[in-house]
Model the fold of this input.
Amino acid sequence: ADCQGHDLDAVELSDPLFLACASDRWAGLVALELREAWRFAGRDPNTLRPVAQGLFRARGLGFAADEAVGGGAGVLPTAGASGLSSDFDLSCPAHVAGVRRRLRLLCPPQKSAAELERAVASAGLSFPSGFSLELEGPCPTRPETTAPYVTSSAYLLAALARAISGPIVDVAGGDGPRMLPEQQPTRLVVVETVAPSRFLLAEQRHASGNHRFLPERFFDAWRGRPFPDYSAALEPMAALALVAVGLRVHSSLQAAKSGWPKLILDPCCGTGTVSAAVRYCMGPLRFPVCAGDVSERMARRTAANLDKFFAGDVLFEEASAGAEGDVPMVPDPTQCQHIRVRHWDATKRWPLPSSCAEAAEGAGMLVAGNLPWGGSLAGKEEDAAGIVRCLAREFPQATLCLIVPEIVRQDCVDSGSLWILHQAPVAKKAALLVCRGNALAETSPPAMWAPTPHRAL
Done:
């Protein structure tokens, strides 16, 4: 997100701050996910302003309003036995994969560590129930054994701890006894920002809906999948943000707060990260998820990865005999799996399940995927373009939420072949593209929603 013209020094102590993933590669996706979450919750996304790299200010909202969130029509009940599932709520603005912390400033931003020390000492902060102190900065702190070659911020934590009244508590483990909210230690965070360079001391706050959606658990669990060794695999955070954007945009276009898709398609599944993010958000809901890859080896690895976390809910479908371009998905009445994986070339029409005949042109369908681009897949731009053309032609009423090579995005814009809803840069060679087929190009979007131009986030 472009922070030019937005002054971090003008942030008021009553303004909630959102610390997001500060990766340049995913900055546009994270900003779009946060804005779409607010839009879907009925809030004005223009009140969200980037004030530093990866840091957003909710101008004029106040903490009382921000913490009264969750419990909308899109909420999913607790999943129960499944260990990798969530109660993802479309209408909860706190359910955003890319936001790592919600913060409340305890003193104005300072230009140096020494100035922050003096400001904290003057503030007279006291936490009788104890406090913890963590660091969020552009560089990791080196171990103490390397002193005096540690970064200055390592000493900043100790200096601030001496200036704050109350016992210091280690909350990293999270295994201590349960306490009432007023008895819990306060989590303090020192944030060293870039663009601009500032030092902040803030209290970490929790929205009321956060306990039902814990992206970090998904990230950590999925990194332990049996077959992670794929250089073009999408990062779990990016996959979850991609799916969240797709779900909210799709529901907005359906003009319904609970307009869940009838089917979700992951046409280039790789190791299954996008499909896993879909299943994580589904919770106990059971609508079909179809995934496939042009490489049979990768498709089978996807099935194995998904089965590790969603045992009994995954089926690898063997293609039936017939012409390569017309291989039906064979229904099996004895099977109840909701995630179906197959070896498939996505430049050809996807064989939909017989139960989704009404989605023949993509009505009610969400397509979320990471198409070939960069890394080991460099030079695959034409394959990605062929997949986009096929999806737009065969499923013109589907909502497409795709990461594509930049050259493909530019071609789609120049040709006018798609109704583009959102676009955002991904690194230097790719882009996020949220669109629909040209068949709906003359349809006006709902009043609550407006397209986002490239690089305008």
